[in-house]
Write a structure and sequence with these properties.
Radius of gyration: 20 Å
Distance between the termini: 46 Å
Largest sheet: none
Shape: elongated
């Protein structure tokens, strides 16, 4: 793996490089193969991994941390497999999300998902209907799913979220 660091870089890039997963940000040569291979970018006009890394390298800290774009990475790692410089945008965006969360910049849609998990025990609680219960019964499966609410109680203590979601 090539250890060459390319410029430009920024204090924001250095800050991310200190977070596990963000170490390789300064190795990006802005070739764009990450964007060309990205499954999300294929369906989005806004999500472009190369451009997001460019903003990091240029030090556009507040714009990146307040953006929802780093949260859209689905961590399929196609970008990482194709990058010839050993850069993993998925890991870099994970580091961005860690830093954004520390500073309270978690997109509302993700807060809703976590709130639904805490409230219901799973994301699809409303979709579990009598039909599914009947199907489970027909298949000889237990209809009582026995969710482990202890885990959710621990999360609820650690993460203050909206209760009324």
């Amino acid at each position: 793996m090539n250890e060459t660091v390319y410029t430009p870089t920024s204090s924001f890039a250095e800050e991310l490089a200190a977070i596990p997963g963000g170490e390789a940000v300064n190795k990006c040569i802005q070739c764009g193969i990450c964007t060309a291979s990205c499954a999300v970018a294929r369906y989005s006009d806004e999500y472009r991994p190369r451009q997001l890394i460019q903003k990091i390298l240029l030090g556009e800290r507040e714009e990146v941390l307040k953006s929802t774009l780093p949260w859209l990475c689905m961590t399929c790692r196609l970008c990482e497999e194709r990058c010839q410089e050993g850069v993993s945008p998925a890991e870099i965006f994970h580091a961005v999300r860690i830093l954004a969360a520390r500073e309270g910049h978690v997109p509302q849609s993700f807060r809703h998902v976590v709130s639904a998990l805490i409230r219901d025990g799973w994301l699809l609680n409303d979709s579990y209907t009598d039909f599914e219960e009947d199907d489970r019964e027909d298949l000889g499966l237990n209809t009582e799913l026995g969710w482990n609410n202890e885990f959710l109680k621990r999360i609820k203590k650690l993460i203050p979220l909206e209760e009324s979601e």
